[in-house]
Design goal:
heterodimer; A: 170 residues; mainly alpha; 5 helices; 66% helix; B: mainly alpha; 20 helices
Chain lengths: 170, 431
C-alpha cells in the first residue's frame, strides 16, 4: 500500500516536471515557427514549477539527496553522530511542525485568489508546500524515534559522498 | 542587529554544522526569526512561495540540469573526444589537453561543474589512466580543475541564480563569462605544457589524414548545441530560460539520432533531474525567507556603509571580496554563498561603483575555485566517489593548476575589461 502510494507520488512529480518541459518547447515552437505567441504557457510553467519542486521535496527527495555540510559530522564517533542527528532532527522537525498551522491558514487564504490567465486558485499551486512541511517534520520525528531506540546505529551509518548529495547549484 | 536575527543565524549555522540539509536549516532559521519577532509564521510560507512563483528566470536551472543529465546519459559528450584527440592528441601530454578542450566545449552545453566532472570528466579520467599514461591522482586533479570552467562559459546555473539575486541581465552575464572561461582554459594548458616538459608526458598517435573528416563529423553534431543555444539567445529568438529547454530538447533529439537512450531510461533521467532540481530549488526558495529577515534588519545597507566608511578603492574592494570568497569557498557550498553572502555585498559593490556583471563573474569564478579547495571541495568529492582516487593525492596534484587558476582570477579582477569587453561590444551598458 505504502509502496503503491510512493509510486503514484513519484509519477505525479515526474510527470508535472515533464509537462513543464514540454510546455516550454511548445511555447518556443509556436512563437518561433508559427509566429503565434501563447498567452497561457508561461503561467502554466510557473505553476508546474512551484508545484513540482515542493511535491518532490515532500515525497521524492531522500535526506541524502540534499546538500549537507559534513565537515564536523564525518570525524565524529558513532555516539557523537547520534547526538548531532538527534539535535538537528529535533530542531528541524519541531520548527517545521510549528510552522504548519499558520502556513496552512495562509495557503487556505490564497484559495480565494486565482492566477490571472488560467484561473487556478493560488491555494492549489501552493498546497504542496504544506505537504512538504508535514512530510519533512514527520520524517524527522520518525528518524528521532529510530535514533532514540535500539537500532540507532543503522541511522548514523556513514553516508559516502556520492553524486546524490553533490547536486548543488554548481 | 536584533536578537531575532541572531537567533535566526544561530539556528541556521547550528543546524548546518550539525549536518542538517542546508535548505531545511534556512527554513527553520526563518521560522525561529518570525517566532522571536512575534510575527505571523505564515509569513514564511508567503515569502517562500511568492518568491519562487515570481522568479521566472530561475526556471532555467531545472532545465539546464535536465539537459546535462540527458547529454551524460546519452553519452553525447563522448563523441567529442575523438575529435579533440585528432586536434591535439599528438602533442606532449595530448590527453591532458584533450581533457581541457572537451571541458571547454561541454561548458558551452551545460551550466554545471558537477555535470562536467561526472560526464566527460569521468570519460577523460578513464582515458588518461588507461595504459598508465597518467597517474589517477593527476587525471583526477586536472579534471576537477577543468570542470570549474563549466559554469563560467555560458550557459551557467550559478550565473542564473546570481542574476536573480542581483537584478542583472542573464544575457550580459552569459556573454561576460566567455572570455574568462577561455583564459582559465589557457592557464590550465600552460600548466600542462610546463608539467609535460618536466615529467615527459606521453603523446598519442597522430590521427591519419583520411580518417579526419569522419572524426570531425562525429564531433560536429554535439557541437551544434552551443551554437544553437548562444545564437538563439543573442538573436533574441528565445530567452535564456527558453534556451535551457531548447538545449534539453536538442540533447533528446541527438540521443534519438544516436539511439543511445531508451524511452524507459529517459523517464529515469527525468526523475533523477527532478530530484537534483528540487534539491537546488529548495535551497533558493528557503533563502527567500532568510533574505527577507536580513533585508528587514537592513544588514546589506550596514555592510555597504562599512565598506564606504573604510574608504577602500575599487581594486582593494575587489581583492578583499576575492579573499572572502576564497576562504569561505573552502568551507561552504556554492548555493549558500550565492544566496546568503552575495545579496549582502551587492549594495556595497554598487556603492563602490563596481560593475555588477564584472562582480558576478569574479564571484562565480571564486566559487568554482572553491569547489576544488579542501576541506569542502565538491568536485574532489565527486571524482573521489566516482573513481575512488585518493583525495590527498588529488589535492597535491591540483596545486600547480590551482595556482594558475588563481592567476587567471587575479587577471579578471584587476582588468574588468577582460570580462566586460564582450558584453559591451554587444551593447551592454554599465548601470
Amino acid at each position: 500500500m505504502f509502496k503503491q502510494l510512493k509510486k503514484v507520488a513519484d509519477f505525479i512529480g515526474t510527470a508535472s516536471y515533464g509537462i513543464l518541459f514540454l510546455t516550454f518547447i511548445y511555447q518556443v515552437v509556436m512563437r518561433f515557427v508559427f509566429n503565434k505567441p501563447l498567452t497561457w504557457s508561461d503561467e502554466l510553467i510557473v505553476i508546474l514549477y512551484v508545484f513540482s519542486m515542493f511535491w518532490a521535496g515532500a515525497f521524492l527527495l531522500k535526506e541524502k539527496d540534499h546538500v549537507m555540510l559534513d565537515l564536523l559530522y564525518e570525524h565524529l564517533p558513532p555516539q557523537g553522530k547520534r547526538a548531532f542527528s538527534i539535535a538537528y532532527s529535533l530542531l528541524i522537525g519541531g520548527l517545521f511542525l510549528y510552522a504548519v498551522p499558520e502556513s496552512y491558514s495562509y495557503v487556505r487564504f490564497m484559495m480565494r485568489e486565482n492566477t490571472p490567465v488560467l484561473d487556478v486558485p493560488f491555494g492549489l499551486v501552493f498546497a504542496p508546500f504544506i505537504l512538504f512541511l508535514l512530510a519533512i517534520s514527520l520524517a524527522y520525528f520518525r528518524k528521532l524515534g529510530v535514533l532514540l531506540g535500539k537500532n540507532w546505529k543503522a541511522e548514523v551509518g556513514a553516508i559516502p559522498h556520492d553524486l546524490h548529495n553533490a547536486e548543488s547549484v554548481e | 542587529m536584533s536578537n531575532a536575527l541572531i537567533i535566526m543565524l544561530c539556528v541556521m549555522a547550528g543546524t548546518m554544522l550539525l549536518r542538517a540539509p542546508i535548505s531545511f536549516g534556512m527554513l527553520a532559521g526563518g521560522v525561529a526569526y518570525l517566532i522571536a519577532k512575534g510575527q505571523d509564521v505564515g509569513l514564511m510560507a508567503e515569502q517562500v512561495l511568492n518568491g519562487l512563483y515570481n522568479s521566472y528566470v530561475l526556471l532555467a536551472v531545472p532545465l539546464f540540469i535536465l539537459a546535462a543529465s540527458i547529454m551524460n546519459a546519452g553519452a553525447i559528450s563522448e563523441r567529442l573526444f575523438s575529435m579533440a584527440i585528432a586536434l591535439v592528441g599528438h602533442f606532449r601530454g595530448g590527453l591532458a589537453y584533450v581533457n581541457v578542450i572537451v571541458s571547454v566545449i561541454f561548458s558551452g552545453m551545460s551550466g554545471s561543474a558537477i555535470a562536467d566532472a561526472a560526464g566527460p570528466g569521468l570519460v577523460s579520467i578513464r582515458m588518461m589512466t588507461d595504459k598508465k599514461r597518467f597517474t589517477p591522482e593527476f587525471a583526477g586533479a586536472l579534471t576537477a580543475c577543468s570542470s570549474t570552467i563549466g559554469p563560467i562559459i555560458p550557459p551557467s546555473i550559478p550565473m542564473v541564480i546570481y542574476a536573480l539575486v542581483s537584478g542583472t541581465s542573464v544575457g550580459a552575464l552569459f556573454l561576460a563569462g566567455v572570455m574568462p572561461g577561455f583564459i582559465m582554459a589557457l592557464a590550465l594548458m600552460i600548466g600542462i605544457y610546463i608539467l609535460g616538459r618536466i615529467h615527459n608526458f606521453p603523446r598519442e598517435e597522430r590521427t591519419a589524414l583520411k580518417d579526419l573528416p569522419k572524426v570531425v563529423l562525429e564531433g560536429f553534431l554535439p557541437m551544434t548545441l552551443p551554437i544553437v543555444l548562444l545564437g538563439g539567445i543573442y538573436s533574441g529568438v528565445f530567452t535564456p530560460t527558453e534556451a535551457a529547454a531548447v538545449a534539453a530538447m536538442h540533447a533528446i533529439l541527438l540521443t534519438l539520432y544516436y539511439r543511445s537512450l531508451s524511452w524507459k531510461r529517459l523517464w529515469g533521467v527525468l526523475q533523477e533531474s527532478l530530484r537534483q532540481s528540487a534539491s537546488v530549488t529548495l535551497i533558493v526558495a528557503s533563502a527567500f525567507i532568510m533574505n527577507y529577515a536580513i533585508a528587514a534588519e537592513q544588514i546589506p545597507a550596514l555592510v555597504a556603509q562599512w565598506f564606504t566608511l573604510h574608504e577602500f578603492t575599487k581594486t582593494e574592494f575587489m581583492l578583499l571580496i576575492n579573499l572572502i570568497f576564497l576562504v569561505l569557498g573552502c568551507l561552504l557550498d556554492t548555493s549558500t554563498m550565492l544566496l546568503v553572502l552575495v545579496p549582502l555585498l551587492i549594495p556595497a559593490a554598487k556603492a563602490m561603483g563596481v560593475d555588477l556583471v564584472h562582480f558576478g563573474v569574479v564571484v562565480v569564478v571564486n566559487m568554482m575555485i572553491g569547489m576544488v579547495t579542501p576541506p569542502f571541495g565538491m568536485l574532489l568529492f565527486v571524482i573521489n566517489a566516482l573513481t575512488g582516487t585518493s583525495l590527498k593525492g588529488m589535492i597535491r596534484e591540483s596545486l600547480p593548476f590551482m595556482f594558475l587558476l588563481l592567476c587567471s582570477l587575479l587577471l579578471l579582477t584587476l582588468f574588468p575589461q577582460t570580462v566586460l569587453w564582450l558584453p559591451q561590444s554587444m551593447g551592454y551598458v554599465t548601470q
